[in-house]
Amino acid sequence: DVWQEAPTAERLNTLHKAPMRCMSERHAYRILYLAWLTLLPPSAHSSQGMRHAASHVLTAIDRTCAMLPACSRCEAALKVLHSLPVPLSEVMPHAPNKVMRLCVESRPVVESLFTLLGGQADEASYAALVQARLGEGQLVSACDAALNLLASAHLHPRSRSLGPVLRACCTAGREDLAQPLWHAWQLRKRDSCGRPSDQDWGA
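RE: above sequence
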């Protein structure tokens, strides 16, 4: 069971069972149940249909959460993620990334999911982590995440991950944080396609 093996399993298990505060839990589960009936193919429980079912689950997260108030979407997405009809390892990092984006206002949840991804975290994973940390004003830890992204040679940093950090550092007058980020970004761009432009940061 991938949830038992993950270092954050206990916390995630607690989160996915948390009551939905903005609507009745019965109503929320009814929506989730209808989403499963609508989206999962008849072969979902056969060995041949398992992988195909995973793509339907990703769609289910989007459609289910679209029917819920914003304050319940994170909890609903965690419930769907916890009930995947395939091993979580088969839909990494896409399913956790989608849930991270829906839970971006809850930094502990995002950090738990990011830890769960381990070495499979991609640029979108870092983007959600940076956004969650910035949302709580944690400039230093957001910069750490951005620098880790820049240090990952197999990933391709984008403005959605790096631009908000640079702007936040400049707004806060934290030149000590902004300069290392900018220099690291310059080095990455020089290694690939030349000097970075202001547009690369969305600044």
